[in-house]
C-alpha cells in the first residue's frame, strides 16, 4: 500500500470517528434544554427582555470619550470639530444607554410583576438626566486626576494618568455607575463596576459614596463596599479593604439595606493591605492607617495607626 492510499484510508477512519462523536450532540442538547425547566439551574430563556452586558460596557467607553474628550479616539479633536464631536458622542450614548436602561427597568417590572412603569419613557428620562450631569461629572473627575498626579511622584503628567492608571479608570467607571445607582437603575451600575473590577482588580460598589480628589494608587485588590462613605482628598493603596463584618446567613437579609461598611473622613491615607470593617467604624479626618492593620473600631481624627515593628531574623547561609 502506497503512502497516498494509507493517508486516504486514515482520513476515512478519522471522519467516521468524528461522525460517531458528533452523533452524541443531540442527546446533550436535549439534556441542556430539559435543564432550563429545572429550579436548581440558572438561565434566561423566555420572552422577558434583559439588558446586554456587552452593550453596557460599550456605554462605559462612550461615556469615557465624552468625559475625556480627545483621549480615547483615533482621530483628532480641535476647536473646529469639538462641537460636532460632543453632539455625535452624546447622541450615540443617549440612544445606547436609554435602550439598556429601558430593558433593565422592563426586566425588573416583569420579573417582580410590578405595575407598568412606562419603561421606554423612564429609560429616556434617566439617560438624559445622566447626560445632563456629565459637565459636572467632568469637573469632579478632574479633581481625581489631579489627586493622582499630586499623590504619585512617578506620574509624569495628566495624560499618562488618564491613559494608563488603573485607579483613575476604576474611579471613572464607579462615578458613572454611581450616577445611575442614585437613579435606582437596576443591574446596569453593577455590571459597569464589575467590568472595571475585571480590568483593574479594583472592586468599588456603585453604591459607595466617595468625595472629590480621590486617589487609588496601584490598586490591585482594593475592595470598597456598598455602604462605604469616603470624604474628600482620601488616598488608598493596593490591597485595602473597606468592608463589612462577617455575617450569618440570617443576618444578611436583615442588614441588606443597612450601613455595613466604614466611614472614611477627609484627608485620610490608608496604606497597602489594611482592612477596615464595619458600618459603625469611622476613621477620623487626617488620620494615617499603616499597612497590614486590621481595624474594626473607630479611630479618632489626627491619629496614626500602625503595626508594631516585627523582629527580622537574619541567618547566614553557608555555601557548599
Rg of Cα set: 26 Å
Backbone shape:
globular
Main sheet specs: 5 strands, parallel
Named CATH topology of the largest domain: serine acetyltransferase, domain 1
Strand order within the widest beta sheet: 1-4-7-10-13
**Helix and strand pattern:** HHHHHHHHHEEEEEEEHEEEEEEE
Tally the beta strands: 14
- Look at the structure and name the CATH superfamily of the largest domain: serine acetyltransferase, domain 1
Number of helices: 10
Which structural class fits the helix and strand makeup?
alpha/beta
The termini sit apart by: 63 Å
Task: Characterize the structure shown.
- By secondary structure, the chain is α/β, with parallel strands linked by helices.
- It contains 10 helices and 14 strands.
- Helix 3 packs antiparallel against helix 4 and helix 3 crosses helix 9.
Layout of SSEs?
Blueprint lengths: L2 H20 L2 H11 L17 H15 L14 H30 L7 H14 L1 H18 L6 H7 L1 H17 L5 H13 L2 E2 L4 E2 L4 E2 L6 E2 L4 E2 L4 E2 L4 E3 L5 H6 L8 E2 L4 E2 L4 E3 L4 E2 L4 E2 L4 E2 L8 E2 L15
Parallel strand pairs: 1-4, 2-5, 3-6, 4-7, 5-8, 6-9, 7-10, 8-11, 9-12, 10-13, 12-14
Amino acid at each position: 500500500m502506497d503512502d497516498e492510499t494509507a493517508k486516504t484510508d486514515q482520513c476515512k477512519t478519522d471522519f467516521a470517528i468524528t461522525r460517531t462523536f458528533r452523533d452524541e450532540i443531540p442527546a446533550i442538547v436535549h439534556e441542556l434544554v430539559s435543564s432550563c425547566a429545572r429550579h436548581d439551574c440558572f438561565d434566561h430563556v423566555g420572552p422577558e427582555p434583559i439588558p446586554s452586558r456587552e452593550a453596557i460596557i460599550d456605554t462605559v467607553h462612550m461615556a469615557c470619550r465624552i468625559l475625556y474628550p480627545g483621549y480615547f479616539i483615533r482621530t483628532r479633536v480641535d476647536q473646529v470639530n469639538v462641537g460636532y464631536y460632543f453632539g455625535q458622542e452624546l447622541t450615540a450614548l443617549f440612544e445606547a444607554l436609554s435602550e439598556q436602561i429601558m430593558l433593565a427597568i422592563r426586566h425588573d417590572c416583569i420579573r417582580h410583576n410590578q405595575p407598568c412603569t412606562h419603561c421606554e419613557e423612564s429609560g429616556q428620562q434617566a439617560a438624559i438626566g445622566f447626560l445632563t450631569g456629565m459637565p459636572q461629572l467632568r469637573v469632579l473627575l478632574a479633581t481625581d486626576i489631579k489627586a493622582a498626579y499630586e499623590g504619585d511622584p512617578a506620574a509624569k503628567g495628566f495624560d499618562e494618568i488618564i491613559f494608563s492608571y488603573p485607579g483613575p479608570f476604576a474611579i471613572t467607571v464607579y462615578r458613572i455607575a454611581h450616577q445611575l445607582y442614585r437613579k435606582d437603575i437596576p443591574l446596569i451600575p453593577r455590571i459597569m463596576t464589575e467590568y472595571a473590577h475585571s480590568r483593574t482588580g479594583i472592586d468599588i460598589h456603585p453604591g459607595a459614596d466617595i468625595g472629590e480628589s480621590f486617589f487609588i494608587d496601584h490598586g490591585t485588590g482594593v475592595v470598597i463596599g456598598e455602604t462605604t462613605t469616603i470624604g474628600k482628598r482620601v488616598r488608598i493603596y493596593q490591597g485595602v479593604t473597606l468592608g463589612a463584618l462577617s455575617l450569618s446567613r440570617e443576618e444578611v437579609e436583615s442588614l441588606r439595606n443597612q450601613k455595613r461598611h466604614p466611614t472614611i473622613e477627609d484627608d485620610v491615607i490608608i496604606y497597602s493591605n489594611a482592612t477596615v470593617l464595619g458600618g459603625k467604624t469611622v476613621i477620623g479626618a487626617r488620620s494615617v492607617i499603616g499597612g497590614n492593620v486590621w481595624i474594626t473600631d473607630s479611630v479618632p481624627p489626627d491619629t496614626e495607626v500602625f503595626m508594631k515593628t516585627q523582629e527580622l531574623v537574619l541567618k547566614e547561609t553557608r555555601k557548599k
